[in-house]
Amino acid sequence: KYPVLILHTKGRVTGKIRKTPLIYMPEENSYVCVGSFGGSPDNPDWIANLQKDAEVLLEICGKTILATGEFVEGSKRNILWGGLVNFYPGFGYYQSLTSRCIPIVKFSPKI
Question: How far apart are CA 78 and CA 73, in angstroms?
Answer without folding.
Answer: 8
